[in-house]
Amino acid sequence: MRVLAALVMALVPWQAPVAATWGEAVSAALALAGQGQRVSAERGVGGALRRQAQGLLADNPALRVKVLTDRATGDQGAYELEGMVDLPLLLPGQRSARMDLADSTEAAADALLGRLQWEVAGLVREAAWEAALAEGRLRQAQAALASAQALQASVAKRKGAGELAQLDLLLARQDTLARQSDLDAASAAHAEAMAAYRALTGQQALPDPLSEPAPALTDEPVPADHPLLASLDRAVATARSERSRVSADRRGNPILSFGAKHARADRDLPEDDALQMEVVLPLGLKRSSAPDMARAERDYTAQLAELQQARQTLARDLATARVAVAGAAQQLGSARERAEVTDAALQLARRAFDLGEGDLAALLRAEERAREARLNLALRELDQGRALSVLNQAMGVIPQ
User: Fold this and answer.
1) How does pLDDT run across 130-140, given as a tens digit for each residue?
2) Tens of pLDDT along 343-387?
3) Is the torsion defined by CA of 368, 373, 375, 376 positive or negative?
């Protein structure tokens, strides 16, 4: 069985994971999270409100049946049967208020989709860059191990020739083991970060290209078309429409009733049939509708406060992201200069060691400083791309 499995694996060509774009990764994460159901449910509410507003009735019709008889009193054969259908009607102002609420609810559903895409994009960006940073550390750890193994082999060769002592070989071996430990830790961290990204998006590889284009900056504290602000603004409009609907409904609904009556005054008298129509006009009192109006006003005020708070938070995040982009560029320049200096010092230390003019301890110290500088440079390069992604997120840019 194992031989057969090995043959099958040998015949099937191996394919590397295909990297998705940022937009595909965000769409996949949105689908996995099942957030589209929220948008569909919100649109369903808007459609139901519209159908209700387009109808004639404000509420469910009712059937009333009344029976009168003198059987328990005089038993003269008198009776009366009456059946009525009550139809609660919509007033013109109530109909327009419900239509406005339906429009606002459907618009809020469309804005909610953009907000969910933006929120998921933030999660995907964070997970992707965490994995990219972990991959950068892994690559540097692999390079450091390869360098340490090469140095150990050189020391072993020179020890065999009698140029170096056993202690030098042990020092080189210790450095190799330390680099192997760093590689194991970096490999585990990378596997963990990639597992988190795959669980979020269902994608096997990071977006390609990983770096996003720089956004077009404006003088506005927050872009007016930011998905979060657009969603909250539509929520404010919906709350305003709900307040108008409650205000229109506080007058109540007139009830139009149709029915028939079948009656007889005495056993010896003929039966009478008649058609009936009733109109009930409610007298709306402010105190009766005051709780509903107060709740609607509270919800509207809460939505306004949330919108204002979100605007302030986004402005602060955007200002912080702009500073972070500038800081990342500055740190990258310093990291490059440091890497160049430490690499030059490492070359001198290695040459001195090869010529027998320097000891192994000095070379190992130079290797450590160069290794730290190269790792710092790789991380600062990734930080610059990450800072641009954070800026795009703060600007409300949704990857396409």
Assistant:
1) 999 999 999 98
2) 898 888 888 888 877 788 888 888 888 888 888 888 888 899 999
3) positive
Q: For residues 312 and 221, is the Cβ–Cβ distance under 8 A?
A: no
Count Cβ neighbours within 10 Å for each residue of 206-227 and write b for 16 or more, e otherwise.
bbeebebeebeeeeeebbeebb
- CA–chain centroid gap for 97, Å, is 32
How far is the C-alpha of 143 from the C-alpha of 289, rounded, in Å? Answer: 74
Q: How many beta carbons lie within 10 A of that of residue 183, not counting itself?
A: 20
**Residue closest to 384 by CA, chosen among 318, 324, 316, 317:** 324
Please, what sign has the CA dihedral across residues 329, 334, 335, 341? positive
Instruction: For residue 394, give the nearest of 288, 323, 344, 300 by alpha carbon.
Output: 323
Question: Quick one: pLDDT at residue 9?
Answer: 36
7-40 exposure pattern, b = at least 16 Cβ within 10 A, e = fewer: eeeeeeeeeeeeebebebbbbbbbeebebeeebe
Q: What whole-number distance in Å separates Cα of residue 375 and Cα of residue 377? A: 5
Q: Is the peptide bond before 209 cis (omega within 30 degrees of 0)?
A: yes
